[in-house]
Specification:
The complex is a heterodimer. Chain A is built from two helices and 28 strands. In chain A, strands 2, 4, 5, 7, 9 and 10 form a six-stranded mixed β-sheet that branches. Chain A has a five-stranded mixed β-sheet with strand order 21-28-27-23-25, with no helix packed on it. The longest helix of chain A has 19 residues. By secondary structure, chain B is mostly beta strands. Chain B has one domain: Immunoglobulin-like, CATH 2.60.40. Chain B is 15% helix and 38% strand. The chains are: A mainly beta, B mainly beta. β1 of chain A pairs antiparallel with β1 of chain B.
Chain lengths: 421, 151
């Protein structure tokens, strides 16, 4: 099966789907609530409801079929949810749940309420978890490419009364991680400022050593050799709710300079206990190299933050045959405190620019309100008979805050015209 | 400050969702089509065509997106037992931790994306390439992933 690349190049004809998509009916699935807390006595039953809706978006919308499953849920250290078979986890409530429907068809504009009931065993006490997964049954029109299945999970957090459990936690890991040194290579200036080096960060793992879940918050403070606090920052996580027995990663970026010297990092974590907090102290030595890294990270962050407009993506690239057309999008976001008057202009440059008539951008003039967003549409029409190969142009976006210098952001557009067969 | 902005954005999203019929505390996927197509063929060594699919996730409460598969290996573009090097990205203005670079397919499955902003547009990207130093058989390659919005 394996062949040399030399011989293999001609055989490299892995025919991925040609993605000419026609018009598809829209499909929607709405589920609420995303999470609910149930309290039940041992041996008793409690009812709950989940609403599944098919929001009407167009006259052509059709009925949608969904499947409902009850599954166990676990949370990884970085906060990612995973779903498992019912009853497979120690703190599972899944086998206690029954739903009145496991499949539904919802008409456009209609909502269906699915009632569930949960019966706690007599021997149960404490906190248990389950999730109702609502999966859109409709599949793609083709088996080529990547099929995406849409699903929404509604969490069911169960507290079985009768015994109270204290909130307990400890810090099991605390460290400062430094980014790898970046290699500077001589090159032409990038079209837009680079993201900059990753800042150093303090990483803290908090373990819930009890059985009661909590929402944790925390912060770090850094004191110099004279015990003066020179840096404070909140610790953040993707999921502050920590189930009993779980661990969670919290991080705080070191995004401000620290001089060369010895420091102490103090970590304070609040896990909703009326009795205690979790603390940790970590010695930190800032060498001249590390001091430079912190300075560079702050400079990069400032440069990124100073740009009044964020443009995504930073570069556009498309491959298409002569005679075809494509529509590309540019997302703009106003990061400044002012409204911005903006223009979008096509720039034709380089050895093989695209034809002037091939590209249009709209709108060409617009205003971005404070924190506002705008999507620009770039339509490329390659005429029949266009020369195959690489062509280029750019979109120049000028943002004028009024009263101060305007900012120019250049988004390169690379177009490869495929040779006709 | 950043959290305040995120909260305001979620409130605004909530108003938008309420106007659109989404009950409070929920999430709404709306997407078409369902297949993330790679529009170009691989016809020679070193090519890595990409495809993308824009989806809409209305929500009126902070939520997360996790990526999973129905069975192991579903995330890799496969045709009759032959595979392509498959990489993904999930991007969108509302994602606090969207991908800035391509992510290997196995790592993509560990992704946990926080959705807090008001912009409901989320885009999934795929890149396909032949394995280094080897030829890939001709064929139609397919894969499948599950995107789960949750609390």
């Amino acid at each position: 099966m394996h062949k040399s690349v030399q011989h293999g190049a001609s055989l490299l004809a892995a025919c991925l789907v040609v993605g000419v998509m026609g018009s598809f009916a829209s499909a929607g699935i709405a589920v609420s609530p995303l999470k609910q807390d149930l309290t039940v006595k041992p041996g008793e039953t409690v009812k709950f409801k989940i609403t599944v809706s098919n929001s009407r978006r167009a006259e052509s919308d059709t009925a949608r079929a969904v499947r409902l499953e009850v599954m166990d849920v676990t949370v990884s250290q970085d906060g990612a949810l995973s779903f498992h078979g019912p009853g497979s986890q120690k703190n599972s409530a899944s086998n206690w749940v029954s739903l009145e429907a496991k499949a539904l068809t919802v008409e456009p504009g209609q909502s269906r309420i699915v009632e569930g009931s949960l019966t706690a065993p007599y021997a149960a006490s404490g906190e248990y978890y389950s999730a109702v997964l609502v999966t859109l049954e409709d599949k793609g029109k083709t088996d080529k490419g990547v099929s995406v299945t849409y699903r929404i999970a509604s969490g069911v957090f169960v507290t079985v009364t009768g015994r109270s459990f204290p909130r307990e936690a400890k810090i099991t890991r605390c460290e400062v991680t430094w980014p790898p040194p970046t290699v500077q290579t001589p090159s032409t200036p990038p079209a837009s400022p680079p993201a900059g080096p990753e800042p150093a960060k303090v990483s803290v793992v908090l373990q819930n050593t009890g059985q009661a879940r909590f929402d944790a918050t925390g912060r770090i403070s850094i004191a110099d050799s004279h015990s003066r606090t020179v840096f404070t920052a909140p610790l953040t996580t993707h999921r502050p709710c920590v189930f009993g027995g779980d661990s969670r990663l919290f991080e705080a970026p070191l995004d401000r300079p620290l001089g060369v010297g010895q420091y102490v990092v103090r970590v304070d974590m609040d896990y909703q206990s009326g009795w205690a907090k979790a603390h940790h102290r970590l010695p930190l030595e800032i060498t001249p190299e590390k001091a430079e890294l912190l300075k560079a990270a702050q400079k990069a962050a400032r440069q990124a933050g100073d740009l009044p407009v964020q443009v995504t993506p930073e570069k556009l690239a498309v491959t298409m045959p002569a005679g075809a057309f494509r529509s590309l999008k540019l997302a703009l976001k106003n990061n400044s405190e002012d409204a911005l008057r903006c223009t979008a202009t096509r720039v034709f440059e380089g050895d093989r620019p695209v034809g002037v008539s091939w590209v249009s951008v709209a709108p060409e003039e617009f205003e971005l309100s404070k924190s506002g967003q705008k999507t620009l549409e770039l339509v490329i029409r390659v005429p029949v008979g266009a020369a195959p190969g690489q062509h280029a142009c750019a979109v120049l976006i000028e943002a004028d805050p009024g009263g101060t210098d305007s900012v120019h952001i250049r988004v390169p557009v690379e177009l490869e015209v495929k040779a006709e067969k | 400050m950043r959290h305040d902005i995120a909260r305001i954005a979620v409130v605004v999203a909530g108003l938008i969702c309420a106007a659109g019929g989404l009950a409070l505390g929920g999430a709404n996927w709306s997407g078409q089509p369902y297949t993330l197509a790679v529009p170009d063929h691989i016809t020679g060594a070193g090519q890595a065509p990409i495809g993308s699919l824009e989806m809409t996730l209305d929500h009126d409460t902070p939520c997360t997106i996790t990526v999973s598969v129905a069975k192991a290996g579903d995330e890799v573009l496969t045709s009759a037992g032959d595979t392509l090097v498959t990489r993904y990205k999930l991007t969108g203005a509302a994602l606090l931790n969207g991908d800035e670079v391509w992510v290997d397919s196995s790592k993509f499955l560990t992704g946990n994306y926080s959705v807090q902003g008001a912009d409901p547009k989320i885009k999934i990207w795929v890149e396909a390439a032949a394995g280094s130093g080897r030829a890939t058989n001709a064929g139609t390659y397919s894969a499948s992933v599950i995107l789960t919005a949750s609390w």
